[in-house]
Design brief:
Helix content: 40-55%
Shape: globular
Distance between the termini: 67 Å
């Protein structure tokens, strides 16, 4: 086992071992099996082997993902598995359709057992390698539905077999069950692949571990490369015990430590070592930096999340001024909804950015659904928005009904009027008319809030009357994903409320998104935004790790599950992505909630840090000092007065006509020099 620390050259080690076996020991390339986790990594491995003497011979090395190897195995042994040679692999959507068919056959409501949950159960079952009955018996959280799941999964499996189908999990599950039952076959494959190498071993799950034991049944020539300190995918089934217990399963194994880090500066590596050292369940080791000391880590405490986003933007501008490029910079956050603040400030500053491994905030389905409803409220002629909301607002308004409604639309008749005309034409008792009347009733209630309420109330009403939260529950793979998507909607509410306080209309908000949208630079010169999980395997000259607050990082779910050590490993991964400069930040108030600094920051020695505070009365308080009573007091806020001159970032100069409310952030009626009247919260005005 090769324990290779961050930035020490894990993949290079496997490539050189393969070359050494072939060129120095005369091992046949066909007898080598190299397993990775992505097709890209497998291709890169072969491409890099081509650079060695007689490089063409390395094309014969069997380099693939676990699942690609499983697919070939199933084709080769289809008859033994009762499969037709031309079996089809179900993709996620096809699998969902098959599950829907099973639920319908068994008269089980999708509301009681959503198809996405069934997909998750299937994945967990196949990843365990256990027989179905044993798996369900030992999965205590399925107790109350065990018999139903047994019926669902049995019917699902029988339909797959009838139709010559396998799912993604079968690619490993069926291979393992066959090798387990047919020892002679296991020995034949073990004899064929005399040398097995596995990259990123810390990310293997239980069935992958069991498969490796089957494939090494006639020899013990197994080389695994990994780092227990970078095991961060337990939510995908990765089992850290596979690497921690490797010595127990293969007691004769030699352990080789690769500790030299060629990526990061000494200060960054010293911080990473200090953080990960706090974990108890790990193999004792330390990264040794090759690079010089470098810049100190900048730790910033911001008053709130808005200042954090603008503060990061300001630092990026400074970095560009001293010679860095946008592509050198990455912003990390723990969960997806935290991207919105950074996207907004980058978009407004015309700085190109790319969401790595995900969607931009305003391109996420739930956000597009909410904005489509608001667009339609603003413009009843918006066919695209109406078509989108008709798909989730009520059931039964299909393609044919939509076409019939839209035939009535003209310059004088908007879509709502056209729908009423359609109902009159069809008759009120027709099913299509009843569905339209349901939509009209829902629309009128939402429109009332649109006209009289605030943005938060409007979004809440859309979610409530369309049953959107329940739709997300059914559409999401698990409860966590559903909650994360609801948090995205909450983040949209915050953006809309801030827009409202600034005196902008819904239309202005939506138009800004369109007008300020930035396409990726054709040469790939953009700031990268991503979750820390997505950053694994990447490196950047400059990294910002943001929202380092307790309950966010470490995440509250992990704390509930007593999984703080994986969260600390995740922070370690974030730190070790930085090559030259590392910025850490947290806030004292996020969405008007008091926050505490992440406990992980306390693991970093203070002499490695430069600490600064932004947005407080006294920004120069030391890191270790008590930070109570530092928020701006109400009595110290500037009180807006009638006739006072103001400047707004978007609308320009103007004057306060009237103060409309009291409280911490009073609303003012402001007349701007362009003649516009706006109701704006005083926090968005600069008083002159």
């Amino acid at each position: 086992m090769i324990l290779a620390g961050a930035g020490s050259g894990k993949t290079r080690t496997i490539i050189y071992r393969i070359a050494y076996l072939v060129l120095n020991y005369g091992v046949s390339p066909t007898s080598i099996l190299a397993l990775t986790f992505t097709n890209k990594a497998a291709r890169e491995m072969i491409n890099r082997l081509h650079n060695f003497p007689n490089g063409k011979v390395f094309k014969l090395v069997n380099a693939s993902t676990f699942h690609s190897f499983g697919h070939k195995f199933l084709i080769q042994n289809a008859n033994m598995l009762g499969l037709t040679p031309n079996f089809q692999v179900l993709d996620e959507e096809d699998q969902k359709r098959l599950i829907n068919e099973v639920l319908s056959y068994l008269h089980i409501s999708k509301d009681d057992i959503p198809p996405k949950i069934v997909q998750r159960v299937i994945e967990e079952w196949k990843n365990s390698g256990d027989e179905l009955e044993y798996f369900l018996k030992n999965s205590f959280y399925y107790d109350f539905l065990r018999s139903k799941y047994f019926d669902i999964l049995n019917k699902y499996e029988s339909l797959k077999k009838e139709r010559g189908l396998v799912d993604f999990g079968d690619l490993l599950y069926l291979m393992y069950t066959l090798l387990k039952k047919a020892e002679s076959l296991a020995r034949a494959y073990s004899d064929k692949f005399r040398f097995i190498l596995v990259d990123e071993y810390q990310d293997t799950n239980l069935i992958q571990y069991k498969l490796l034991k089957c494939l090494t049944i006639s020899h013990r020539n197994l080389t695994v490369v990994g780092d227990d300190d970078q095991s961060i995918y337990s939510f995908r089934g990765a089992e850290i015990r596979n690497i921690l217990d490797f010595r127990k399963d293969f007691p004769e194994a030699k352990i080789v430590y690769l500790g030299k880090n060629y990526r990061s500066t000494k200060i960054i590596i010293d911080a990473a070592n200090a953080v990960i050292k706090a974990n108890k369940n790990r193999m004792e080791k330390m990264l040794v930096p090759v690079k010089e000391e470098g810049h100190k880590i900048v730790l910033t405490c911001y008053n709130d999340e808005k200042l954090e986003a603008t503060g990061v933007l300001d630092e990026i501008k400074k970095l560009i001024d001293i010679g860095y490029h946008f592509k050198d910079i990455a912003i990390f956050y723990r969960t997806n909804q935290l991207s919105r603040r950074f996207e907004d400030v980058l978009r407004r500053a015309k700085i190109p950015y790319k969401i790595y491994g995900g969607f931009r905030f305003y391109n996420r389905k739930e956000i597009k659904d909410m904005l489509a409803f608001i667009r339609f409220l603003c413009n009843r002629y918006d066919v695209m928005s109406f078509t989108r909301i008709a798909n989730f607002a009520v059931e039964g308004i299909g393609k044919v009904t939509l076409e019939c409604i839209l035939k009535h639309v003209n310059e004088e008749i908007d879509i709502i009027a056209a729908m009423k005309a359609f109902i009159s034409e069809e008759g009120r008792n027709k099913k299509s008319s009843l569905n339209c009347m349901t939509f009209l009733s829902l629309f009128e209630k939402i429109e009332e809030v649109f006209l009289t309420g605030n943005p938060g109330q409007l979004v809440d009403k859309i979610v409530e009357l369309t049953g959107y939260k329940e739709k997300l529950r059914i559409d999401s793979k698990d409860e966590r994903e559903s909650e994360e998507r609801m948090k995205n909607i909450e983040e949209l509410k915050i953006a809309l409320i801030e827009n409202f306080k600034e005196g902008k209309s819904y239309t202005e908000f939506i138009n800004e998104l369109v007008l300020e949208d930035i396409t990726e630079d054709v040469e790939g010169n953009h700031v990268y935004l991503m979750t820390v999980h997505s950053s694994k395997g990447l490196e950047f000259p400059v990294v910002f790790v943001t929202a380092l607050e307790d309950d966010i990082f470490p995440h509250m779910y992990s704390k509930e599950e007593k999984n703080d050590e994986e969260e600390r490993r995740l922070f370690y991964v974030a730190i070790t992505r930085a090559k030259e400069r590392l910025y850490l930040s947290y806030v004292e108030s996020r969405n008007n909630r008091r926050m505490e600094m992440s406990p992980f920051i306390k693991n970093i020695p203070k002499d490695l840090l430069v600490f600064q505070r932004v947005g407080f009365i006294d920004n120069n308080l030391a890191y270790a000092e008590n930070k109570t009573d530092i928020l701006v007091k109400d009595s110290e806020r500037l009180e807006p007065k009638n006739g006072q001159r103001v400047i707004h970032e978007y609308f320009g100069a103007g004057k306060v006509l009237k103060r409309l409310s009291d409280g911490k952030d009073p609303i003012c009626l402001v007349q701007f020099e362009n003649g516009e009247l706006k109701k704006i919260a005083s926090s968005f005005l600069r008083f002159v």
